[in-house]
Amino acid sequence: MPKMAPLDRILLLTTGILSAYQVAVGIDHFDAFPILAYSIAFGVLLVASLLLIILGFEILDLPAVVVISTIIPLALSLGLVWQHLAAWRIPYLVFSILGFLSILITRSIAMRKILPIVVLAVTHGVAGMMIFLLPILLALRGVLEPAFSLVGVGGALIGLGGLLLFFLKAGKPILSRENILRVFPGLLLLMTICFVVGFRFG
């Protein structure tokens, strides 16, 4: 496991600071439920950044990381749906709850590998596509300012990070482990910047 460089800690610390800003200031003009959903997402990102700084990259090998990392895309996508797709609020809330519980159960009980992979792929795939497509479509239609499309770019980056970690843990890495861990802190920071700027100016 590569040792975390000082630059990595700076990038992660900046990610944590931006996440804390987003919880404290960046979403205070939304309604109550989206504020709750976004606060959960950015709160988990803040805690994850701090734990990576303190414990190093070794924390990524813990089984609980898969479950905890699911909270970020599910909470973000739920907040977006609640704000902008009123007719889909309850169905997507049910999907989010069932998706999280399914991942929790399939990662807690010993079972054949195919089912946990399918559950993870479906849950992350739907949440990721929602974060990626919805902001871009809203910006293209003129419903929100063009800058809101950056939230979609952040969604693409979170999807990329998830894929890199998923294939790494599956033993079929897209890049070498060293390269994945080298780009991961910067990817997290760039993703967070896109979210913060997109929500602020969109």
In short:
This protein has 202 residues and is mainly α. 79% of the residues lie in helices and 0% in strands.
Question: What is the terminal separation in angstroms?
Answer: 39 Å
Number of helices: 7
Q: What is the H/E string?
A: HHHHHHH
Q: Strand content of the residues, in percent?
A: under 5%
Number of strand elements: 0
Helix content: over 70%
Parts with pLDDT < 50 across at least 5 consecutive residues: none
Please characterize this protein's 3D structure:
With 202 residues, this protein is mainly alpha-helical. It has one domain (6-201). 79% of the residues lie in helices and 0% in strands.
Reconstruct the topology from this structure.
Blueprint: H1 6-26, H2 32-55, H3 64-84, H4 89-108, H5 114-140, H6 149-169, H7 177-201
Helix pairs in contact: 1-2, 1-7, 2-3, 3-4, 3-5, 4-5, 5-6, 6-7
Any key phrases for this structure?
202 residues; mainly alpha; 7 helices
